[in-house]
Every structure is written in C-alpha cells, then in structure tokens.
Amino acid sequence: MPHPSRLLCPLLLLLLTLAPAAALPGAHAAAPGRKAAGLEHSAVPRPFTANYRLEVRGWPDATIEHRLTREDDHWQSRMSAAITVARGRERSRFIVEPQGVRSVHYASGYSLLGLGDDYRLTGEALAERPDRQTALFELSRRALTGDCQDAACRLDYQDHRGREERLDYRVLDRETIALPAGDFEAVRVEAIDPEKPERRLLFSFHPGFPGLLLAVEYHRDGQRQSRLSLTELARPD
User: Fold this and answer.
1) What b/e string do you get for 102-128 counting C-beta neighbours within 10 Å, with b at 16 or more?
2) Sequence-ordered strand ranges (E) for 98-193
3) Contact residues for 13 (Cβ-Cβ < 8 A; gap 6+)
C-alpha cells in the first residue's frame, strides 16, 4: 500500500507517484518557459474554489478543497485534503507570463495520527522546472491552448522533495461529464506509462478555468483504482 503522504497530499498529480511516467521515445519535450506569442483567453487564470470527493480503493473517501487566488503579481494554488485519521496540504505561488508559467514558492505537508512532515521549495530549486502544483496549472493550460499537437507530449516538473519527474500525455476530445456538482464540458488528458501499459490516468479539466480539475481517474490492469470528482464549485464574478 502506498505511503499515506502519497495519498493524502492533495495534489492530484500525486497520483503519478502510483504510476510513474517513463519517457516516451520520440516524445516532444516542452519546457515550462517555452516561448509563446501570448496567452490565449482560455489560458488566462481565473479565481475559483472547488471541493471534491476522492475515492481510493482500500481507503476511506477523502474530501479535498482547491483554491486558486490572485495575490499581487502572482497566483496561489492551494489544496488541502482530509480523511478520518490524516490530513494533507499543499500550496504554490507562480507567475503567468507570455513565455510560460514560473514557480516562485512551494510548500506542503501531511499528518497521520499526529505524525507527519513538511516540505518546501524556493528560489533556485524552482528555476529549472515547476513544482507539481504549478505543473497541474501548466498541464491544463497546454490542453486548453493546444500547445502540444504531437501524439505524445511531455511535461517536466519536480515532486515535493525536489526530485525530477516527467509526465507524458496526450489531449483527447472534449466531452460532457456528469459529476456531483453538475454536468460540465471537459477537456480530457490521458497519461500512460509505456513501460507499464496497465496503468493509465485520465484528467478532465474545465475549459474556462485553467488549473481547475473536474475529475481524475487512475486505472490499473483495466480497473479503476481511484477517482476524484468535483462536488462543489464557486466562481467569483
């Protein structure tokens, strides 16, 4: 069974630690700082507060809150999660520029039965690649703007300890999905480990709010192991 911090730390990209993505031969590598003519409307951040239910086989359901807020010249993405015996939290500050998204600060931590740990990334540690909260925003931004047109695309980022991670993905067709919070059009992204084809991730992003997950599913051996579902969404006017 995975370590509790891997399930309780609320960033859903952390599901990738259950199915680490290996490099796809010939995949397109796009750094977060890649040059772009400018941000399209669909990639402009908008504040939101979202609540979720996370179902993981063998664990009690978890509740998750995700908030994206504007603070001066940067944006802050904050997630918190809780189950009966444990809690997790994660937050990241990043700046959205015409050439890409830049991480400036990251912090996370978890507690299980009164025991836990805290992690932090700042300055030079974030210069080469984004933290995983920022990577989540960047992944949705690429899906919304069509930055990657290849069959297999790549996103490099780092985990809570600063270790390099790599996500290979492809953007699927849009579809309407039914969730506890209602019916939503979703931009769907699939991630597969080519060395472990029995493992698969499906992300569903909101088409108008970069960084806003509608749902995430993790499949292994043809069975769904976990699912994140949006239960409530608040969008300031």
Assistant:
1) bbbbbbbbbbbeeebeebebeeeebee
2) 100-112, 115-122, 153-158, 164-171, 175-179, 182-192
3) 132, 133, 135, 136, 139, 157, 167
What is the per-residue burial (b if ≥16 Cβ within 10 Å, else e) of 145-180? eebbeeebbbbbbbbbeeeebbbbbbbeeeeebebe
Greatest Cα pair distance, the chain, in angstroms, is: 49
- Rounded Cα–Cα distance for residues 32 and 134 (Å): 10
Whole-structure pTM value: 0.79
- Sequential pLDDT tens for the chain (237 residues): 343 334 333 333 333 333 333 222 223 333 333 333 344 555 788 999 999 998 877 777 888 899 999 988 899 999 988 777 777 889 999 998 877 789 999 998 887 777 778 899 998 899 889 998 998 899 899 888 877 766 678 888 888 888 888 778 889 989 999 999 999 999 999 877 666 667 778 999 999 999 999 999 988 888 888 899 999 999 875
User: Which pair of tokens denotes residue 102?
Assistant: 């830049």
φ, ψ of residue 142 to 5 degrees: the values are -65, -40
Give residue for tokens 């700046």: 95
d(CA 30, CA 144): 15
Measured CA to CA, the distance from residue 92 to residue 77 in angstroms comes to: 5
Give Cα separations from 135 to 21, 61, 79, 197 (angstroms): 14, 25, 14, 23
